Amino acid sequence: MSFRPPARLLGLLLVACPAMAWSQPWEPYSWHLALEAGETQLDISKDNYRIDDSDTSLHLMAGYEITRNINIVGGYMDLGRFATDLLVEDEDGDMVVDDRRRTSVSAWTAHVEMHWSLLGFLHPNVGLGAARWRLDMPDGQYDDTQDTAPMLRLGLGIDVAPNSRLDVTVQEISRLNARTAALGLRITF
């Protein structure tokens, strides 16, 4: 499953949307809370383990709108529990599966989100930031792994009631090779 948008579409959003957004009314300086549920695909291959699995993910976020088109957002994401092949070297020097366990993956996230309002009820958005992720390995002989990596988010929000909207997002955390597609609810206050 690939979430890489066509370059032309991304370019069109980054050029056309800001021009249209300036004509929209703006409620200054608002906070929002969001909860997203989705599916994360994880693909990692290291010397002593391999993960190629998907699971349900949850992402809780809070954000603050600092200008008409820019939010600062932070959150916690439970990416799921993934089947993990624990590898050992056989007598021929090849890596073979010794055991299969489950690995929990989570991340603290922070990003800057550019957003626009189109037709008064559609809200395309692009987020760029970082995720501090952690793999909780299943066995004492395998070290837990954590790192900070760039994160890219693309989304489209649709107003469903005053001060609330549904968001459809795709997100990628590089170096972790984690791709997530999610549906969320955002409430602004």
What does this structure look like?
The protein has one helix at residues 7-21; strands spanning 31-45, 49-67, 70-89, 95-115, 122-136, 145-161, 164-173, 178-188. The protein is mainly β and 189 residues long. It has a single domain (7-188), classed as Porin (Beta Barrel), CATH 2.40.160. The chain is elongated. InterPro entries: OMP/PagP_B-barrel (IPR011250). It comes from Natronospira bacteriovora. This is Outer membrane protein beta-barrel domain-containing protein.
Provide the descriptors you would attach to this structure in a database record.
Outer membrane protein beta-barrel domain-containing protein, mainly beta, 189 residues, elongated, OMP/PagP_B-barrel, signal, Porin
Mean pLDDT across every amino acid position:
86
CATH class: Mainly Beta
CATH topology: Porin
Shape annotation: elongated
Domain count, please report it. 1
**Helicity, in percent?**
under 10%
Poorly predicted segments: 19-24
Signal peptide: 1-21
Organism: Natronospira bacteriovora
Protein name: Outer membrane protein beta-barrel domain-containing protein
Keywords: Signal
Give the arrangement of secondary structure elements.
Elements: H1 7-21, E1 31-45, E2 49-67, E3 70-89, E4 95-115, E5 122-136, E6 145-161, E7 164-173, E8 178-188
Antiparallel strand pairs: 1-2, 1-8, 2-3, 3-4, 4-5, 5-6, 6-7, 7-8
Question: How would you summarize this macromolecular structure in one to three sentences?
Answer:
The protein is mainly β and 189 residues long. The chain has one domain (7-188): Porin, CATH 2.40.160.20. It has one helix spanning 7-21, and strands at residues 31-45, 49-67, 70-89, 95-115, 122-136, 145-161, 164-173, 178-188.
